[in-house]
Design a protein that fits this description.
This protein is of the alpha/beta class. 31% of the residues lie in helices and 18% in strands. It is built from 16 helices and 17 strands. The protein has helices at residues 26-38, 53-58, 72-78, 86-103, 124-130, 172-176, 214-218, 238-250, 260-273, 277-288, 292-301, 354-368, 385-391, 409-415, 431-434, 472-479, and strands spanning 16-22, 43-49, 65-70, 108-111, 116-120, 136-139, 141-147, 160-163, 194-198, 220-222, 228-232, 289-290, 304-306, 343-350, 374-381, 401-407, 440-442. Strands 3-2-1-4-9-6-10 form a 7-stranded mixed beta sheet, sandwiched between helices. Strands 5, 7, 8, 11, 12 and 13 form a 6-stranded mixed beta sheet that branches. Helix 8 packs across helix 9 (260-273). Residues 1-5 and 324-329 have low confidence and may be disordered.
């Protein structure tokens, strides 16, 4: 693949029908359709997930596209409330469309997201002819990043295709710096890519990414990068990124079983989406762009190619740019999820420290509860449901108090490992991801408040963002090194 090879996509997907489930910006959907129509796909099956009426009304009638509206009432009829996660809905919608595609005489059906484009270096008919017994073809994924000269207002405007690699083969932190912690081997999303299935598909034989049964896996041919793969535009445009993550964080889209790096992205993007639009755009540009130095490193290592799909998404369907301003409904700015309280405290606790932590919280409340509202933010390492119930008993006192929990077990598993018996002490480094934005006092779970110390909430810190005091162990060391 490369900048020149993008033009060879025209006609390469003959004999392949393509499925996606969509919920987002109309501009992205129509450009996605244009790409696959230009590539010669035999039919497009688009499941519209709870679409607004204005989107349905605006979609063009085209004999090559089947629009399937799946409104909220449809999902509720199939799933209990709270169990409508994205992947489950995608698999079921794909299963329904696969039956329809087979009945309409199609031989192959690709399962891709609306931010994924299949780019092949040769016609799929030639690929299928080389592997006549293959029941499926999986496509390797390449993550799309913006060059400094790309415009971030276009969903498919990114032009740098980055190939995944093991950290042992390449140091991603040298290229992405602090962003490397939010990636998995250089990718924002999943490494498995997506699949083109031969129809008909046996019930239960597919997942979001690839076949799941032993027989399905055995008959799957993994295509190599020189044949082609998936271009994953996970960044999208600033507007589609805003809409996608805003829906997830507001709860209108439910995604479960997220990997640790996806959870970390969600926390990072949550912070960004609480900011004004101008600051969101600045964050988007900084996070999703690669400067010339990063590009040189990746090209030298053979992990980057330049791909321009603009000619392939320009038609045949007319595309009107999405209008999203800082005040209208087309642009998300998350509201604060928690009310501001008078006094906020933070603690970290594992299962062996529940009782001491409860004692610390009780001692603080005894001296502070009558003075105003109190919030305890507790980061838990391996806490059970009974531990949470025990610590939340403080909410049943006469004081105005709330106890908020966040599970950081997976973060500690990733960053510290399971060998350190005191690993929960490192949990405080994640507080920046979870604390509502107001002054907060952090307390270890082995201290007791012996008096009112609310004057710390009024203490002038000047330009400092943190203030601290030495504990008794440090004082002993100072007195007797």
């Amino acid at each position: 693949m490369g900048r020149a090879s993008a033009s060879t996509s025209s006609g390469t997907l003959a004999r392949v029908a393509v499925f996606t489930m969509f919920r987002g910006q109309p501009e992205q959907l129509l450009e996605w359709c244009n790409f696959y129509l230009t590539a010669g796909a035999s039919r497009l099956y688009v499941a519209l997930d709870s679409p607004p009426p204005e989107l349905v009304a605006s979609l063009p009638a085209d004999p090559r596209i089947h629009w399937e509206v799946l409104d909220q009432e449809t999902w509720v009829s199939f799933y209990p409330s709270g169990s409508q996660n994205v992947e489950r809905k995608q698999v079921d919608a794909f299963r329904w469309m696969a039956r329809r595609a087979a009945s309409e005489g199609h031989e192959y059906l690709a399962f891709v997201d609306a931010d994924e484009l299949i780019l092949l270096s040769e016609p799929f008919t030639d690929v299928a002819q080389r592997f006549p017994d293959a029941g499926a073809f999986t496509l390797p994924v390449r993550e799309m990043w913006y060059a400094e000269t790309d415009t971030t207002s276009e969903p498919f405007g990114a032009s740098l295709a980055v190939r995944a690699s093991s950290p042992r083969a390449f140091s991603w932190s040298q290229v992405f710096g602090w962003r490397a912690q939010f990636l998995r081997n250089g990718l924002l999303g999943h490494e498995a890519g997506k699949t083109i299935y031969r129809l008909p598909i046996a019930a239960g034989d597919m997942t979001v990414h690839q076949p799941r049964t032993r027989a399905g896996i055995a008959s799957t041919e993994k295509l190599t990068p020189d044949v082609g793969g998936i271009l994953h535009f996970d960044s999208g445009s600033v507007a589609t990124w805003n809409a996608k993550w805003g829906a997830r964080l507001e709860g209108s889209t439910l995604a479960t079983n997220l990997g640790s790096h996806r959870q970390a992205q969600q926390r990072l993007f949550s912070h960004a989406l609480h900011q004004p639009r101008q600051d969101q755009e600045k964050f988007f540009r900084e996070f999703f762009s690669l400067d010339s130095s990063a590009q040189t490193r990746l090209e030298t290592a053979g992990f980057l190619e330049r791909v321009d799909v603009r000619d392939l998404i320009a038609g045949p369907l007319a595309v009107a740019p999405t209008k999203a301003d800082s005040t209208g409904p087309g642009f998300v700015r998350l509201a604060e999820t928690s009310r501001r309280v008078d006094y906020q405290f933070a603690l970290v606790c594992d299962r062996g420290f529940v009782k001491p932590t409860f004692a610390t919280m009780t001692s603080v409340l005894a001296h502070t509860g009558d003075k105003g509202s109190v919030r305890f933010v507790v980061l838990g390492d391996g806490l059970g449901a009974d531990d949470v119930v025990h610590l939340r008993e403080l909410e049943h006192t006469r004081f105005d108090v709330e106890v908020v929990f966040h599970d950081v077990t997976a973060d500690l598993d990733r960053d510290v490992g399971s060998e350190d018996k005191k690993r929960a002490t490192f949990g405080r480094i994640y507080l920046v991801d979870y604390l509502p934005e107001q002054r907060t006092i952090y307390l270890d779970g082995d201290v007791l408040a012996t008096r009112d110390f609310t004057e710390l909430f009024e203490l002038d810190l000047g330009a400092a963002c943190l203030a601290g005091a030495p504990d008794s162990a440090a004082l002993r060391l100072m007195a007797n090194p």
